[in-house]
Amino acid sequence: MVADDNQAIRDLVVQILEAEFDVVGVASNGTEAVELARKFLPEIGVLDITMPGKTGIEAAEELLSNGSKIQIVFLTVHEDPEFVRRAFDMGASAFVAKRKMAKELTLALRTVALGQNFVSPCCSLTVS
Q1: What pLDDT sits at residue 66?
Q2: Which domains does the chain have, with CATH numbers?
Q3: How confident is the model at residue 22 (pLDDT cuts 50, 70, 90)?
Q4: How much is the pLDDT for 123?
Q5: What is the rounded CA–CA span in Å between residue 99 and residue 20?
């Protein structure tokens, strides 16, 4: 599942992922992402952090606090280590910088599928 408020980014993410993964739903905000996740039960959710209404972090927190097994991959322009720390503190599995998504997003999903965490190296925080 993919959630981002920018249509062009959503389309690009789907294009990148479809070569290796089945994209079961696409949302434009956190509320839609929660609804799609409950409906389709995706293994991985690629969420933008900053979206109008319910943010990606709020959507992820809601899903994870309600027992969802979804693995959260944040795809964001925010590269500050504090965003990374907050994302992993709430249960994220990966943190990918949007400017690196062409090279790192598929790798991040493969890594998460193997049960490991991933952080874009440009975000300079090690998560184990």
Answers
A1: 87
A2: 2-123 (3.40.50.2300)
A3: very high
A4: 86
A5: 20
